[in-house]
Amino acid sequence: MKNKVYKTVQKISASVAILATVLLSLSGELHAGDFEDWQRILEKHNRWDRSQGGLAMNPVVSNSARQLLTRYKMQTITGKTGLTSSITGTRLDQTLSILASDRGLHQKISSTDLIQGLIAANQLNNIIVDSVNKLGIGRDRKITPDEIRQLSGYIAANHRSEWELYHGDDEGNEETGYHFVQNDGGNSRIFGQKAADTVIDGIYHLGFGTTADGQNLLNEDNNKNISVADAANWLSSLLYGNIVPVQG
């Protein structure tokens, strides 16, 4: 029992610390060098919990990471967003870090818009992780194209209204949901593509279903978007890999 409690505390600490880093980077209290230190800490201290049979949990937070975070006002996190108790606890949370560290976004949009985009991204991440676990896919640490089709169909059938809300749109010059950060100047790249505009946005079309031939995801306007094969590769890497973005 003590071991289970300890593991739970470790996981919660890791999730809260990751969120703290994201929010503090937006508030101007966390410097670029500190963020890079945090990325290295995550990579060095990665530990996977294989006993759960589902998605692996985020790394245990090291003493050096805790020391890094305690230099800042931790209380400013509370109440700033609804994220503090609801990030996924999986490596998909690194999408938040990738977006929060994107220099292009910091130059082009306000911190308020960036935070709104992160809130929406987190909600979409939660739907993805919950759906992956309920479907029992990805047990071999890989999401296949067939599983992407299954996942897309499940989300569209069970979470369509939430997905539309959090994905958002930019119709009529009014941005909502993830569109607060999509096509707004982000220039970090992962997998050779723009992180915010192509990879992450592409994955966030999961909830709109697939084309009739099953080869592509549909977007919010019911048009063909990224291929199911790309979605499978990118989501697998974000769920189970360590992704270091290339800054533009």
Topology record:
Elements: H1 2-27, H2 32-44, H3 63-69, H4 94-100, H5 103-108, H6 111-135, H7 145-158, H8 160-167, E1 189-190, E2 193-194, H9 195-203, E3 216-218, E4 224-227, H10 228-240
Antiparallel strand pairs: 1-2, 3-4
Helix pairs in contact: 4-6, 6-7, 6-8, 7-10
What is the count of distinct domains? 1
> How is the biggest beta sheet arranged?
2 strands, antiparallel
Q: What distance separates the N and C termini?
A: 47 Å
Spatial strand sequence of the major β-sheet: 1-2
Q: How confident is the prediction overall: mean pLDDT?
A: 73
Beta-strand percent range: under 5%
Radius of gyration: 17 Å
- Low-confidence parts, pLDDT < 50 over ≥5 residues? 2-17, 23-85
SSE order, one letter for each helix or strand? HHHHHHHHEEHEEH
Q: Helicity, in percent?
A: 40-55%
| Structural class by SSE content | mainly alpha
- What is the tally of helical segments? 10
Strand segment count: 4
* Form type: globular
